[in-house]
Amino acid sequence: MLPCRSEAANQKGVEVCWGRGEPSLFTCHNAVIGSSGQRISYRKSYRFSLLSSSSLTISSSQPSDAGFYHCRLQLPGLFNDQTFSVHLIIIDSRPVFSSEPSKRSDDEGNLNAPQTTTDYITEGSDVTGGATTEPMMAVVQPIQQQERVNTLQMFVGNTVRTSFVVFIPALLLAAAYRVWRLKQSWETDRRMDQSEEGSSSA
Protein backbone atom coordinates (compact mmCIF):
# COMPACT_ATOMS: atom_id res chain seq x y z
CA MET A 1 0.00 0.00 0.00
CA LEU A 2 1.34 3.41 -1.00
CA PRO A 3 -0.18 6.08 1.24
CA CYS A 4 -1.72 9.28 -0.04
CA ARG A 5 -0.92 11.42 2.97
CA SER A 6 -3.24 14.38 2.70
CA GLU A 7 -5.92 15.76 4.98
CA ALA A 8 -8.39 15.69 2.10
CA ALA A 9 -7.71 12.03 1.23
CA ASN A 10 -10.53 10.81 3.49
CA GLN A 11 -13.12 13.29 2.23
CA LYS A 12 -16.05 11.77 0.36
CA GLY A 13 -16.58 12.59 -3.29
CA VAL A 14 -13.01 13.76 -3.90
CA GLU A 15 -11.53 12.86 -7.29
CA VAL A 16 -8.23 11.01 -6.83
CA CYS A 17 -5.72 9.79 -9.38
CA TRP A 18 -2.39 8.00 -9.03
CA GLY A 19 0.36 8.33 -11.62
CA ARG A 20 3.97 7.36 -12.15
CA GLY A 21 6.89 9.75 -12.31
CA GLU A 22 6.85 13.40 -11.31
CA PRO A 23 3.40 15.02 -11.10
CA SER A 24 2.38 17.46 -13.80
CA LEU A 25 0.81 20.85 -13.15
CA PHE A 26 -2.81 19.99 -13.88
CA THR A 27 -3.29 16.19 -14.11
CA CYS A 28 -1.72 12.89 -13.12
CA HIS A 29 1.26 12.03 -15.31
CA ASN A 30 1.23 8.47 -16.67
CA ALA A 31 -1.90 7.60 -14.65
CA VAL A 32 -2.31 4.06 -13.32
CA ILE A 33 -5.70 4.47 -11.59
CA GLY A 34 -8.28 7.18 -11.00
CA SER A 35 -11.51 7.46 -9.05
CA SER A 36 -14.41 9.84 -8.66
CA GLY A 37 -15.77 9.31 -5.17
CA GLN A 38 -16.22 5.57 -4.68
CA ARG A 39 -16.28 4.80 -8.42
CA ILE A 40 -13.14 3.76 -10.30
CA SER A 41 -13.01 5.84 -13.48
CA TYR A 42 -9.72 4.50 -14.89
CA ARG A 43 -7.49 1.51 -14.17
CA LYS A 44 -4.35 0.71 -16.16
CA SER A 45 -4.09 -2.83 -14.77
CA TYR A 46 -6.07 -5.12 -12.49
CA ARG A 47 -3.06 -5.08 -10.14
CA PHE A 48 -3.81 -1.50 -9.09
CA SER A 49 -6.59 -0.73 -6.63
CA LEU A 50 -7.58 2.06 -4.25
CA LEU A 51 -8.52 1.86 -0.60
CA SER A 52 -11.06 4.11 1.10
CA SER A 53 -8.15 6.27 2.33
CA SER A 54 -7.11 6.90 -1.33
CA SER A 55 -3.99 4.77 -0.78
CA LEU A 56 -2.72 2.78 -3.76
CA THR A 57 -2.41 -1.00 -3.52
CA ILE A 58 -0.23 -2.94 -5.96
CA SER A 59 -0.79 -6.69 -6.03
CA SER A 60 1.73 -9.20 -7.44
CA SER A 61 4.45 -6.56 -7.31
CA GLN A 62 7.25 -6.69 -9.89
CA PRO A 63 10.69 -5.04 -10.05
CA SER A 64 9.39 -2.86 -12.88
CA ASP A 65 6.90 -1.33 -10.43
CA ALA A 66 9.71 0.49 -8.62
CA GLY A 67 9.98 4.24 -9.02
CA PHE A 68 8.17 7.44 -8.18
CA TYR A 69 4.40 7.53 -7.74
CA HIS A 70 2.19 10.50 -6.99
CA CYS A 71 -1.40 10.94 -5.94
CA ARG A 72 -3.40 14.02 -6.89
CA LEU A 73 -6.56 15.07 -5.09
CA GLN A 74 -8.72 17.28 -7.26
CA LEU A 75 -10.53 19.53 -4.80
CA PRO A 76 -13.34 21.98 -5.66
CA GLY A 77 -12.32 25.54 -6.43
CA LEU A 78 -9.39 27.16 -8.17
CA PHE A 79 -5.82 26.17 -7.34
CA ASN A 80 -6.88 23.72 -4.59
CA ASP A 81 -5.43 20.46 -5.99
CA GLN A 82 -3.08 18.61 -3.65
CA THR A 83 -0.29 16.23 -4.68
CA PHE A 84 1.86 13.83 -2.72
CA SER A 85 4.82 11.80 -4.03
CA VAL A 86 6.11 8.41 -2.92
CA HIS A 87 9.32 6.70 -3.99
CA LEU A 88 8.80 2.94 -4.17
CA ILE A 89 11.94 0.83 -3.77
CA ILE A 90 11.56 -2.88 -4.46
CA ILE A 91 14.19 -5.10 -2.88
CA ASP A 92 14.74 -8.70 -3.94
CA SER A 93 15.32 -10.66 -0.75
CA ARG A 94 18.24 -13.02 -1.19
CA PRO A 95 19.75 -12.99 2.31
CA VAL A 96 17.88 -13.50 5.56
CA PHE A 97 15.98 -10.47 6.78
CA SER A 98 15.04 -9.69 10.32
CA SER A 99 12.34 -7.45 11.75
CA GLU A 100 14.30 -7.14 15.00
CA PRO A 101 17.01 -4.48 15.47
CA SER A 102 20.47 -5.93 15.11
CA LYS A 103 22.27 -6.57 18.39
CA ARG A 104 25.93 -6.01 19.16
CA SER A 105 27.96 -9.16 19.36
CA ASP A 106 31.43 -10.16 20.36
CA ASP A 107 32.29 -10.70 16.70
CA GLU A 108 31.81 -7.00 15.88
CA GLY A 109 35.01 -5.63 14.46
CA ASN A 110 36.34 -9.11 13.64
CA LEU A 111 37.00 -9.18 9.91
CA ASN A 112 37.04 -12.99 9.88
CA ALA A 113 33.62 -13.30 11.45
CA PRO A 114 30.77 -14.46 9.16
CA GLN A 115 28.71 -11.66 7.67
CA THR A 116 25.03 -11.34 8.61
CA THR A 117 22.48 -9.12 6.92
CA THR A 118 19.99 -7.28 9.11
CA ASP A 119 19.90 -3.93 7.32
CA TYR A 120 16.51 -4.24 5.65
CA ILE A 121 13.46 -4.53 7.85
CA THR A 122 10.28 -5.93 6.36
CA GLU A 123 8.07 -4.68 9.18
CA GLY A 124 5.68 -1.97 8.05
CA SER A 125 5.97 -2.81 4.36
CA ASP A 126 3.83 -0.50 2.22
CA VAL A 127 3.54 -2.81 -0.79
CA THR A 128 2.26 -6.37 -0.88
CA GLY A 129 4.37 -8.74 -2.92
CA GLY A 130 3.48 -12.00 -4.54
CA ALA A 131 5.71 -14.03 -2.22
CA THR A 132 7.08 -13.67 1.27
CA THR A 133 10.64 -13.96 -0.05
CA GLU A 134 10.30 -10.63 -1.85
CA PRO A 135 9.69 -7.93 0.75
CA MET A 136 8.86 -4.50 -0.52
CA MET A 137 9.76 -1.20 1.05
CA ALA A 138 8.25 2.19 0.22
CA VAL A 139 10.25 5.27 1.11
CA VAL A 140 8.33 8.52 1.31
CA GLN A 141 10.07 11.74 0.31
CA PRO A 142 11.07 14.00 3.21
CA ILE A 143 8.30 16.42 4.10
CA GLN A 144 10.45 19.52 3.57
CA GLN A 145 11.56 18.39 0.12
CA GLN A 146 8.00 17.52 -0.82
CA GLU A 147 6.78 20.90 0.38
CA ARG A 148 9.39 22.65 -1.80
CA VAL A 149 8.30 20.63 -4.84
CA ASN A 150 4.62 21.31 -4.17
CA THR A 151 5.27 25.01 -3.54
CA LEU A 152 7.10 25.43 -6.85
CA GLN A 153 4.44 23.51 -8.75
CA MET A 154 1.66 25.49 -7.10
CA PHE A 155 3.42 28.78 -7.90
CA VAL A 156 3.88 27.91 -11.57
CA GLY A 157 0.38 26.48 -11.83
CA ASN A 158 -1.21 29.46 -10.12
CA THR A 159 0.74 31.87 -12.32
CA VAL A 160 -0.37 30.12 -15.51
CA ARG A 161 -3.98 29.84 -14.37
CA THR A 162 -4.10 33.45 -13.19
CA SER A 163 -2.70 34.56 -16.54
CA PHE A 164 -5.53 32.73 -18.31
CA VAL A 165 -8.13 34.09 -15.90
CA VAL A 166 -6.95 37.66 -16.51
CA PHE A 167 -5.98 37.42 -20.19
CA ILE A 168 -9.12 35.78 -21.60
CA PRO A 169 -11.64 38.26 -20.08
CA ALA A 170 -9.38 41.17 -21.10
CA LEU A 171 -9.25 39.83 -24.65
CA LEU A 172 -13.04 39.45 -24.76
CA LEU A 173 -13.55 42.97 -23.41
CA ALA A 174 -11.13 44.41 -25.97
CA ALA A 175 -12.93 42.58 -28.79
CA ALA A 176 -16.34 43.76 -27.53
CA TYR A 177 -15.08 47.35 -27.25
CA ARG A 178 -13.70 47.22 -30.79
CA VAL A 179 -17.01 45.93 -32.14
CA TRP A 180 -18.86 48.65 -30.24
CA ARG A 181 -16.58 51.37 -31.64
CA LEU A 182 -17.01 50.06 -35.17
CA LYS A 183 -20.77 50.04 -34.72
CA GLN A 184 -20.72 53.60 -33.36
CA SER A 185 -18.56 54.75 -36.26
CA TRP A 186 -20.87 53.07 -38.76
CA GLU A 187 -23.96 54.73 -37.22
CA THR A 188 -22.24 58.14 -37.21
CA ASP A 189 -21.32 57.79 -40.88
CA ARG A 190 -24.89 56.74 -41.71
CA ARG A 191 -26.34 59.77 -39.94
CA MET A 192 -23.94 62.11 -41.74
CA ASP A 193 -24.89 60.59 -45.08
CA GLN A 194 -28.59 61.03 -44.32
CA SER A 195 -28.09 64.67 -43.27
CA GLU A 196 -26.13 65.39 -46.43
CA GLU A 197 -28.85 63.82 -48.57
CA GLY A 198 -31.49 65.91 -46.77
CA SER A 199 -29.62 69.16 -47.26
CA SER A 200 -28.95 68.46 -50.94
CA SER A 201 -32.61 67.67 -51.63
CA ALA A 202 -33.68 70.89 -49.94
Automatic annotation (TrEMBL):
SUPFAM superfamilies: Immunoglobulin. It comes from the Eukaryota. Pfam families: V-set. The chain crosses the membrane at residues 162-180. Residues 1-85 form the Ig-like domain. One of its GO terms (biological process) is apoptotic cell clearance. InterPro entries: Ig-like_dom (IPR007110), Ig-like_dom_sf (IPR036179), Ig-like_fold (IPR013783), Ig_V-set (IPR013106). Keywords: Membrane, Transmembrane, Transmembrane helix. Residues 97-128 are annotated as: Disordered. GO terms for molecular function: phosphatidylserine binding. This is Ig-like domain-containing protein. It comes from Amphiprion percula (Orange clownfish). The lineage of its organism: Eukaryota, Metazoa, Chordata, Craniata, Vertebrata.
